[in-house]
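Below is a filled-in request sheet from our internal design queue. Each sheet records the structural input a requester submitted and the sequence that came back. We keep these sheets so that new team members can see what a complete request looks like end to end.

REQUESTER: design group, bay 2
PRIORITY: normal
MODE: inverse folding
CHAIN LENGTH: 384
BACKBONE (tokenized):
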């Protein structure tokens, strides 16, 4: 009985010793683990403070300055030569609008221009004719003055003859009939003088009218030629506008890219400003990387960025440069901005879009599309 109790006690002592050993070992392992964690934290802190010269974010997306294709004239769509996803080059025809109205308008404008030039030529010819008329009126005035002078001489002669005969008649040297005849001759000469003076006045009036017509005609073309006459310039501007409207019936791609959001059909009538489609310039893409505000203290324009896309994974790496910062955070430009002037305000870390330009050669080798997710890493030591 005593031996059995001794065996039990020995067993219990052995188990207790084993438990103590396990606890001691566990404490050592936990101590080692804590030491490793502390050392790792210290090493990370040292790396973060002294060796980490970059920031990164996976909140980044591909963007582009899309070209909106709009109509500049009104009319009916005659042809649509592209579809969504089509690759186009700058200058390729996208849409054709019925140009018959524009062609007629151009013909009318050209006719108005020809008419304006012909009117200038007519005015120039009228100037020569009116100048000749002024010369003719001058000759008429000179002739009328001569007639007035002759009539005045006849009046003076008839007056002298009448006065002489009146003196003789008073002495009875001549008959009453001779005096009456002299008086009639004086009246006739005076009447002829009045007619001659009226002719002179008419000639002078005719000359003034000719001078006025000449001045009015010269005012239309003075200091101009056929190409600088105001009426010609207005008609020429209408021709250029009509030609421009005709050219605008053919809508071309403004940039190289891919057609997107086409919403135009053949036969549809469009008005100026109607959006027909967009062209995405896939060779000029950029990335808007939304970094936390706490990451941006050392970010500068011109710093080198390395990017990867979810489309190609880590196998394809893009290189770019920081080209600018947004004027405000995403929350500031939201349709419904956050209202923090409340008693339940909770501070939220804001993100500011940083624009990164991509290398066109790399985009040509591995094309991206607008809206794709990217991971961006900016080297803070690349440019101070």
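RETURNED SEQUENCE:
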């Amino acid at each position: 009985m005593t031996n059995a109790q001794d065996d039990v006690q020995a067993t219990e002592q052995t188990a207790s010793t084993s438990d103590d050993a396990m606890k001691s070992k566990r404490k050592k392992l936990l101590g080692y683990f804590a030491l490793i964690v502390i050392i790792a934290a210290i090493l990370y802190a040292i790396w973060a403070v002294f060796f980490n010269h970059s920031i990164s974010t996976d909140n980044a997306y591909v963007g582009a300055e899309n070209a909106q294709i709009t109509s500049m004239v009104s009319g009916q769509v005659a042809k649509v030569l592209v579809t969504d996803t089509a690759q186009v080059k700058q200058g390729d025809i996208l849409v054709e609008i019925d140009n018959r109205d524009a062609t007629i308008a151009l013909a009318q404008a050209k006719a108005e221009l020809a008419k304006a030039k012909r009117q200038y030529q007519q005015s120039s010819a009228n100037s020569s004719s009116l100048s000749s008329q002024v010369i003719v009126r001058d000759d008429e005035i000179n002739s009328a003055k001569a007639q007035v002078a002759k009539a005045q001489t006849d009046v003076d002669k008839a007056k002298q003859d009448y006065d002489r005969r009146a003196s003789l008649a008073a002495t009875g040297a001549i008959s009453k009939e001779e005096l009456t005849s002299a008086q009639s001759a004086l009246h006739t000469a005076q009447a002829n003088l009045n007619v001659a003076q009226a002719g002179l006045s008419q000639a002078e009036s005719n000359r003034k009218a000719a001078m006025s017509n000449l001045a009015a005609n010269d005012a239309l073309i003075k200091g101009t030629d056929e190409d600088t006459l105001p009426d010609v310039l207005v008609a020429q501007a209408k021709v250029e506008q009509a030609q421009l409207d005709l050219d605008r019936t053919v809508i071309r791609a403004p940039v190289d890219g891919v057609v997107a959001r086409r919403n135009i059909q053949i036969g549809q009538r469009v008005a100026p400003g109607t959006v027909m489609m967009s062209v995405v310039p896939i060779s000029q893409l950029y990335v808007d990387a939304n970094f936390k505000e706490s990451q941006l203290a050392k970010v500068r324009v011109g710093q080198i960025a390395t990017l990867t896309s979810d489309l190609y994974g880590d196998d394809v790496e893009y290189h770019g440069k920081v080209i600018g910062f947004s004027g405000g955070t995403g929350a500031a430009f939201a349709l419904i901005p956050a209202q923090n002037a409340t008693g339940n305000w909770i501070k939220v870390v804001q993100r500011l879009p940083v624009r990164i330009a991509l290398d066109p050669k790399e985009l040509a080798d591995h094309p991206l599309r607008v809206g794709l997710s990217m991971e961006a890493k900016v080297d803070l030591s690349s440019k101070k």
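SHEET NOTES:
- The helical segments are 2-51, 100-171, 176-221, 230-247, 360-365.
- The first strand starts at residue 54 and ends at 63.
FILED BY: M.R.
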